[in-house]
Amino acid sequence: MTMRIERYEKAFLGVGAGMLVIFLLALGFTSISMGINLPGRAGEIDPASVRAIPPFNNPGVRELGPGRYEVVMVASAWAFQPNEIRVPAGSEVTFMATTTDVIHGLHVDGTLVNMMLIPGQVSRNTYRFDEPGEHLMVCHEFCGVGHHIMSGKVVVE
Ligand SMILES: [Cu+2]
Fold this sequence. Notes:
Shape: elongated
Structural class: alpha+beta
Largest sheet: 6 strands, mixed
Low-confidence stretches: none
Number of strands: 11
Order of helices and strands: HEEEEEEEEEEE
Mean pLDDT: 90
Radius of gyration: 21 Å
Bound molecules: copper (II) ion
Strand content: 35-45%
Distance between the termini: 70 Å
Oligomer: single chain
């Protein structure tokens, strides 16, 4: 009886260890081969004075160089500023975003841009928009009664 319990215990530990190895390989594969990474923590900022601190005092889309753009974005209940972003197809776009009040999310549909915007933190993520089209941009962290209207779009021309 004792032997049997030990054998199952050992098998169960083996399953646990095997799953750990599989998950670590999946993590390595997605981050190295597929380029899926956590958005970077690009810095800290005083959430009360976001609108006075560059570059967030002037949100918008800027061209950094040929085919390279930066979107400086301020989220607040319940809007993104800017809420419409236009870039040419093939552009590499770096999103720099923060929030002035509560936690918001920034998800650009159909892309790998999916960040949390946390008061006091600057979030950064870069994505290449190869195909022309429109991407819905939504807040995916419940942020109050206007959460469902907090949206915008990225237009790839
Ligand atoms: Cu929200």
